[in-house]
Specification:
Keywords: Coiled coil
Protein name: SPT17 protein
Shape: extended
Low-confidence stretches: 111-120
Radius of gyration: 51 Å
Strand content: under 5%
Mean pLDDT: 78
Helix content: 40-55%
Amino acid sequence: QKRWRGYYVRKYIHNYYALKKYLEAISVNNEIVRNELQEYAEMKEKEEKRKDIEKKEKEKKYQARKMHYLLSTEKIAGIYNSPFRKSPDPMELLLQKSKPLSHRQQQTKSPFAYELYDWPTCKRPPTFSTAQLLPPIGRQKPQGPFRDTAEVLQQRYKPLEPTLRVAASINSPLEKAREEMKKEEWRNCIHDNEFLPFSSYHKNEKYDPSIHRSVKYGQETYGIKHFREVQPKKWVADKVSHCIF
């Protein structure tokens, strides 16, 4: 079976010359595609370089319009037209050709612009008047059993009207009054002992000595009799050293 299959494939199925011709056609096709890709890459590179050059030229022209005040005058030479050069800088020639950059004019928005464009999309709540509302310009009424747009907006933005059960408080009026009274007392009460700012009121009060001064060991002498501690036992000599000049 192995030898028969090999013979049958070589005799009737496999064709060496057809395979060789197919591989040559593939190599030719690959070469054509490779050349086209190379040309496309070169074209893209040239286009990118051209765009970069145009962008740089545009930016240079914009800078020249922006720095037009540096242009030379008849009396004073500009920074690009130095007298120590044989010829002026190319920027000086570009400044002469370009026009000064004007200030941008602020676009004043019409106060009635939102009435025409924001009304159909409901971006802001409309102010309803007693007069009859006009339909928006250039907006047709949709076909079908739909209500008027002004009526729908009136219903959408109407104020809230809660029922008596929702508006009434959960607590009873008596408990609510008690809570308000407690809050008022807590807010007004600053301290229990009333302070009387008179010198004769505190004369009969007994002075409460400090805990640190009323102990059995007595009070400290530091800060009352002297302000520098002296320990003669730690002295090296018997006398105190003095600075002599």
